[in-house]
């Protein structure tokens, strides 16, 4: 059975994007490590290494979406990655299903070119108590429909939920930049390298703390 592993930085950006705009639907694109992608058609395993926040206003296949996807493709190729999925959070707190998500045409466009693509839906209800369990639902495309595959989720680090909860407590979602923000101010970094570095520093600090505990 195929697995969908998600690195901390990718998961963090998904959750921070939803947290920054709790009154809006949000969406974005997922990148997978091309070198770690195992062949298997629609059933290949994926290592999701990054999430690129797209919109909180314009969620559909528009000229701006085409521009964004073209730029993301360039970024992916330069980092030996592939566009391997889509994520979204619904505007309504209780709407946590694919059918209510924005920009379904974008997801369909991605799976057309990458049959094993995943669709991650943010579970708004689980965002409230984030340490308890992942606040996402993973889906794969089968027989013309996105179907839930919760059992496939694997986190690369045991500290993912703790790290992202820490970021939320510090209000880091305010620093996240999506493509809408970039269109308003092109000096902003919509790849969010600053958040990537912050996540890496928190992970390193957590590992150091654990090493100290073991020594003691």
What does it look like?
The protein is α/β, with parallel strands linked by helices and 216 residues long. The protein has one domain: Cytidine Deaminase, domain 2. The protein is 36% helix and 23% strand. Strand 4 (81-89), helix 3 and strand 5 form a beta-alpha-beta unit. Helix 1 (8-20) runs parallel beside helix 4 (160-169). The chain is globular and about 40 Å long. Mean pLDDT is 87; it is low at 210-216.
Q: Would you summarize the structure shown here?
A:
InterPro entries: EMC8/9, MPN. By secondary structure, the chain is an alpha/beta fold.
What gyration radius follows from the Cα positions, in whole Å?
17 Å
Structural class: alpha/beta
Number of helices: 6
Q: Give the termini separation.
A: 41 Å
Q: How is the CATH topology named? A: Cytidine Deaminase, domain 2
- Average pLDDT confidence is 87
Family: Belongs to the EMC8/EMC9 family.
Pfam family, one: UPF0172
GO cellular component, one term: EMC complex
Protein name: MPN domain-containing protein
